[in-house]
Amino acid sequence: MEQRMAVLKLNECKDIVAFHKMPSEDRKYPKNWNTKAVLDRHLIVIDEAYELFRVGPGSEAKEIQEARACANAIAQKGRALGIHLVIATQRPDKDAVDSQTKANMAGRLCFKMADIPSSTTILGSKRAADLPKIQGRAIWRCGLDEIEIQAPNLGVEEAKSILAPFYSNTQTAQATPDSKPEVAEVPVKLPGSSPEQKNAMAIDE
User: Fold this and answer.
1) Distance (Å, whole) CA 43 – CA 132
2) What sign has the CA pseudo-torsion 54, 88, 102, 15?
3) Which residue of 45, 82, 89, 131 has the smallest Cβ count within 10 Å?
4) What is the dihedral of CA 173, 179, 184, 188, to 10 degrees?
5) CA angle, corner 27, sides to 23 and 30, nearest 5?
């Protein structure tokens, strides 16, 4: 993140969008910059966030604080630098995601919740508790706007079929570290609606 900030500062760009609009011949880089590096976008996904952020048996308070600090930094600064954060949890608990991190997340996706307190923890409103019992129905909140949406469904067998080439390439790469397997392009079809989930996701847009 620091390297990206240095590049944007050198080129007087407020974010990565402004940098990409610059002609390539006009772009400036720090002296220690890797010329082969590309300032593309990155997506960081933290699944089961409660397991990462909670303090409990087997966890070290120092490690928890470091994890919270990293997530806070990415949520606060990453968007302008092209580094986006997705945090998912099945536990609508106030400790599942750090409050500072949550405050910097632009979007929140919440499936049906069992009660109003759980919905309020994620969305700040009771709308997720009032959702009809339709598989994949959820509330998308961005800023102050809340929209009821229908999520698509990807079954287990479909997922296995789509990801099979990637599993194969991963195993090959692990067996021969020097090899460079080609990644197959697999079309993804998402029919129907998703199974009902009691989880929530925060997205940094």
Assistant:
1) 31
2) positive
3) 45
4) 30
5) 170
* Structure-token pair, residue 105: 């997340």
Residue 188 token pair: 């993804």
Which residue is it, tokens 């129907």? 192
Residue located via tokens 């019992």:
133
Q: Which amino acid is at 131?
A: L
* Amino acid at position 173, single letter: A
pLDDT tens for residues 113-129?
Answer: 989 988 988 888 899 99
Q: In this model, does residue 148 exceed pLDDT 90? A: yes
Q: Is 61 exposed, middle or buried (0-12, 13-18, 19+ CB in 10 A)?
A: exposed
Ramachandran category for residue 128: left, alpha or beta (phi over 0 → left; psi -120 to 50 → alpha):
alpha
